[in-house]
Amino acid sequence: MQKITLSLVMALLCHAVTAQPVTRQAGARQQDNSMQQTADSAILHDPRLATIDMAQLSRELEEYHRYMAAGPAVDASLQPSRIKSFILMHPDYWVSLLEFGELVRSGLIIKPDLKFGEFSPGMQHSPLGKSVMQLIKDEAAKLGPGKAAPDFTAETPEGKPIHLSDLRGKWVLLDFWASWCGPCRMENPNVLANYKKYRDRNFAVLSFSLDENRPAWKGAIQADHMEWDHAGDLKGWHSAIVQSFMVSGVPKSYLIDPEGKIVAVDLRGDELGKMLEKTIK
Question: How far is 6 from 245, CA to CA, in rounded Å?
Answer without folding.
Answer: 26
